[in-house]
């Protein structure tokens, strides 16, 4: 049994010492006395402990192990030439480690070759895409090459894809060529709730329009699109939009077009008669709409000020006539606005200089109240 630490004085031939150090020796033989220390040194290879033919030891701080045993553990061949006192160590051809490395190298080379081939294919596809895209862009300016059959096929595709995009709403699509762009008319009907579309958030509507326009543009050589969303029940436009294919940008106005309402007011109501005072010019108009509950409020500002106006407004007989005149004029105005919307309309009248409230009119009930 080996001690944990022991000292032995041994005599070793210099040739043996050099063999342990794995070097070739050509010097003359001689005898040298050394001190070796044994410490139960353990040798492991690739994480596994190995039993050697002779126990390793220390000499002057260097560890000595049996050369043949260690070399063979690592798969090498060891030969001793007693004539020349030479140790020859050779890696064993076809060893397990060598074979594994060769297989790994072969696999890596195959993977590199495969990746290079795939890269070349991607480059070719990219060049083809660039060529086709350039051709499409150059030919998409007129849209005259799009046939009616192609548009009909696109309409069917849109119906199959987007007709039931939202619950309780059914969409229908009609596409026509308008010079260098396409005109897209989207009509819809409510299946249960007449206000289902109005309750949608604007972001949901624009998301649908972006997807629809992108699909159309990709099918027809990146052509620009313009269109509307119309309620079939009363033929009222609920949204207008335009799509630029080159940038993929959608511009949409959902709900009531307040600018259009304001324009209608300005075109049809330039002044209002105030009994006992004068015809007061309409100085400003402000329009606001609530799409969630389908209401629109119009504020009209009249050029009415001064003591003469104040005094005329206080006279009861004047107020009776003002009631009649205001109600008639505002109802006539709402009739024109109602041709473009089914929103509930209210109108408030103010003085322009001091923003003093004068009157309110409700179109649905045809009622007017004066200050």
UniProtKB/TrEMBL annotation:
Keyword line: Coiled coil, Signal
**Cleavable signal peptide:** 1-27
Q: Cell wall biogenesis/degradation as a keyword?
A: no
Q: Where is the Copper amine oxidase-like N-terminal domain?
A: 24-89
Key word Coiled coil present in the record?
A: yes
Which parts form a coiled-coil structure per UniProt?
105-132
What InterPro entries does its record include? Cu_amine_oxidase-like_N, Mao_N_sf
This chain's protein is named: Protease inhibitor
**Source species:** Cellulosilyticum ruminicola
Q: Provide the taxonomic classification.
A: Bacteria, Bacillati, Bacillota, Clostridia, Lachnospirales
